[in-house]
Design a protein that fits this description.
This protein is of the alpha+beta class and 258 residues long. It has three helices and eleven strands, in the order H-E-H-E-E-E-E-E-E-E-H-E-E-E. The strands form two sheets. Strands 2, 3, 4, 5, 6, 7 and 8 form a seven-stranded antiparallel β-sheet that branches. Strands 1-11-10-9 form a four-stranded antiparallel β-sheet. Strand 10 and strand 11 form a beta hairpin.
Length: 258
């Protein structure tokens, strides 16, 4: 993913800037379009992982004298028509927001309810389907240079008010089971929030894991010294600073060719 093209960009930028055996003040510019492929791959991986997991946990709640539980939550469909990247700045640090827009999510689950009628508990249960339309998922990260001069995506301290956000344009739930009409009239709105919350939690946790386990190790694998086999030259560079300008990220480097 990100490491392959970034390594090439860094190497080419350094070679072009090195007019003598050593060079300094090298600048490499990374545009939003370079990161859009990573956005598409990241959300594609997210879709596969969410659908592959057949049980996304249990949610319980209570409203007055009615207690309810949703369980065996299965996301069986997740598709998004577009993915893009927006760049910005937070506290002088460049940020990137990976955005999935207009997605459709479908989930199935089991539900149980119990109403305290003083003299007895009235219990109902059944199955249900939830359909979410126009889902916008945004995952924001901070791009920074680590102490050992590697690039890193910080997915938990992005510098923004919300590092992972889920917005839903429309949602519908179809219930099947005992006393369905009564449940729909009384508490179905509680199910809407519970399903939205668990989908957001699962999606954000998996995106954090993808960034931490896959993208950051690739960034860390970019060496500070490389060998150009075709020329028999050693390429070396140090990442000195990183900033945001317009729709680009600008990486400052010191280095050269020997």
């Amino acid at each position: 993913m990100v490491a392959l093209w970034l390594k090439s960009v860094l190497m080419v930028g350094t070679v072009l800037a090195a007019s003598s055996q050593t060079a300094s003040g090298i600048v490499t510019v990374l545009s939003e379009s370079l990161f859009e492929r990573d956005a598409r791959e990241m959300f594609s991986d997210l879709e596969k992982e969410l659908v592959a997991k057949t049980d996304h946990g249990t949610v319980k709640g209570k409203n007055g004298r009615f207690s309810w539980k949703l369980y065996r939550i299965n996301i069986y469909h997740f598709s998004g028509p577009s993915a893009n990247v927006e760049m910005g700045t937070s506290a002088n640090d460049p940020t990137m927001s990976y955005e999935l827009e207009g997605a459709t999510i479908k989930a199935a689950f089991q539900w149980e309810g119990s109403y305290d009628a003083w003299f007895t508990d009235v219990k109902v249960d059944g199955s249900a389907d939830a359909r979410l339309y126009g889902v916008d998922l945004t995952k924001s990260v901070k791009l920074r240079v680590t102490k050992d001069d590697h690039l890193e995506l910080d997915s938990t301290n992005c510098g923004l008010s919300n590092c992972c956000d889920l917005q839903i344009d429309d949602m519908s739930i179809s219930l099947r089971g005992g006393a369905v009409a009564w449940v729909m009239d009384k508490v179905i709105r509680l199910f809407y929030g519970a399903i939205a919350d668990i989908i957001k939690y699962e999606a954000c946790e998996k995106l954090n894991k993808l960034i931490h386990d896959e993208m950051n190790p690739q960034l860390a694998s970019i060496p500070l010294r490389s060998t150009l086999l075709s020329e028999g030259l050693n390429l070396h560079y140090n990442l000195t600073d990183i900033s945001h300008s317009g729709d680009c990220i600008v990486i400052g480097m010191d280095g050269g060719v020997t």
